[in-house]
TrEMBL record:
Belongs to the DEAD box helicase family. This is RNA helicase. Residues 278-457 form the Helicase C-terminal domain. It comes from Pleurotus ostreatus. Keywords: ATP-binding, Helicase, Hydrolase, Nucleotide-binding, RNA-binding. The gene is DBP5. Residues 1-40 are annotated as: Disordered. The keyword ATP-binding applies.
Length: 461
């Protein structure tokens, strides 16, 4: 990589006035699941996304080019190689703030599927000193699946740099590994804490600390403690830029987020801006639990037109449904946190490659997972607060709902979500979601398959 310029604060920043020509996008063939080839999928998709990028009201819109954001030439090459042509709104707004010096913390919010990952990955890749073989950027995500996906973006965007990367996820490093020299480390909070404690990660040169899905990572009832532990092990000899991104920042974590990332630049959404317009929301009134299963099976043909993710409350439900459907001759996979690391990796990779078109899962992959072919999400069970708090709270979990349905409708694509309700309680819970988001959830009859098919096809047009 051409050397970056070091400024007065010791940070490496992209040269402002590079004269090298911008590299034209080039098409690469191969397996989509390989990190270097993710751009291929984006490119296919950009054809659809680009008209929205010209609409000033869209979160995908930007008046600027990537060049105008002051990125290093080698990163521009990576961006164009991934098939991106223009920044999205969050990228345009956040990048100048993220790259300015002295570095300032950031709390950034933007709807699901609008390109937050690129904003923080480009910041990490812009801030590191490529001549130092020590960890300089740490990124935490709530699941191993998301950490692996973020890493694939780091690798793709950093393809024309000499960045070295390493995972901090369970069962990844060889036993007895003593020191990580990679500059960018992406992982989950538990393993990152463990590696730092054991001094396998030396944080003395860390300049950037990113929390993706930050509201979830800071939630005191969830991953908050572990994330705080990582932060407390960061060096105090120099400022570390703290970057928090999510599509949601509920009130109960906002104050803590501001304390965690003091004096941060903030990009925030209003409650009525949270849902993504391209996702059409439906519900089906099922008679009882067993009827939910029958309806899901009857939807199989529609679920497999593109790809679908079915969210259940419990791991056991996900396994049970998947076993039953498999026994009845349907091809589905199930994924949840009780499976071991290797199995989880194989399942999500298989789904990404399209080997299975239906994935039955829990909240473990409700956040962040980006698979463009997913055009349908089914809430087999609605997400409830008690899954987060274990406090017996039966209120719907609006944030998790938004993240779940946000697995479809990525970057301007069309998508469908279907909620199964089966009694008065679940119907009222769904009504609360509808009210909170100010978006109509349309009923689909469970006994009229032609109407069902027609409505869904229309929604995807
Ligand atoms: N400027 C761009 N041009 C074209 N495609 C883009 C651009 N930025 C991001 N994308 C693509 O848009 C998709 C969604 O991006 P990303 O996963 O970063 O969304 P997100 O905002 O992090 O969503 P979530 O809140 O669900 O985590 C990805 O497939 C990514 O490659």
């Amino acid at each position: 990589m051409a050397s970056l310029e070091k400024d007065a604060d010791g940070f490496y920043t992209p040269a402002e006035s590079s004269t090298a020509p911008v590299v034209a996008p080039k098409v690469e063939e191969g397996n989509d699941a390989e990190p270097g080839n993710w751009g291929k999928r984006s490119r296919q998709f950009n054809l659809r996304g680009c008209h929205q990028q010209a609409d000033p009201n869209s979160p995908l819109y930007s008046a600027k080019s990537f060049e105008a954001l002051g990125l290093h030439q080698d990163l521009l090459k990576g961006i164009y190689d991934m098939g991106f042509s223009k920044p999205s709104k969050i990228q345009e707004r956040a990048m100048p703030l993220l790259l300015s010096n002295p570095p300032t913390n950031m709390i950034g919010q933007s709807q699901s599927g609008t390109g937050k990952t690129a904003a923080f990955v480009l910041t990490m890749l812009s801030r590191i000193d490529y001549s130092i073989n020590k960890p300089q950027a740490l990124c935490l995500a709530p699941s191993r699946e998301l950490a692996r996906q973020i890493m694939s973006v780091v690798v793709a965007m950093g393809k024309f740099t000499q960045v070295q990367t390493e995972y901090a996820i369970k069962d990844h490093l060889p036993k007895g590994a003593t020191r990580i020299t990679a500059q960018v480390i992406v992982g989950t909070p538990g393993t990152m804490t463990d590696l730092m404690r054991r001094k396998v990660i030396d944080p003395s040169e860390v300049k950037v600390f990113v929390l993706d899905e930050a509201d979830n990572m800071l939630d005191q009832d969830g991953l908050g403690d572990q994330t705080l532990r990582v932060k407390n092990m960061l060096p105090r000899t120099h400022p570390v830029q703290i970057i928090l991104f999510s599509a949601t920042f509920p009130d109960h974590v906002r104050a803590f987020a501001s304390k965690f990332a003091p004096n941060a630049n903030k990009i925030e959404l209003q409650q009525n801006e949270l849902s993504v317009d391209g996702i059409r929301q439906f519900y089906m009134d099922c008679k009882n639990e067993e009827h939910k299963y029958d309806i899901l099976v009857s939807l199989y043909g529609l679920l497999t037109v593109g790809q679908s993710i079915i969210f259940c409350k419990h791991r056991q439900t996900a396994d049970r449904i998947s076993q039953r459907m498999t026994a009845e001759g349907h091809k589905v996979a199930s994924l949840h946190g009780a499976k071991d690391a290797a199995e989880r990796d194989a399942i999500i990779d298989g789904f990404r490659e399209g080997k299975e078109k239906v994935l039955i899962t829990t909240n473990v992959i409700a956040r962040g997972i980006d698979i463009l072919q997913v055009n349908m999400v089914v809430n087999y069970d609605l997400p409830l607060m008690n899954e987060r708090d274990r406090g017996g709270d039966e209120r719907p979990d609006i944030e998790t709902y938004l993240h779940r349905i946000g697995r479809t409708g990525r970057f301007g694509r069309k998508g469908i979500s279907i909620n199964f309700v089966h009694d008065r309680k679940t119907w009222l819970q769904m009504e609360q979601i509808e009210k909170a988001l100010g978006k109509k959830i349309i009923r689909i009859e469970t006994n009229d398959f032609d109407e069902m098919e027609e409505k869904m096809k229309q929604a995807l047009k």
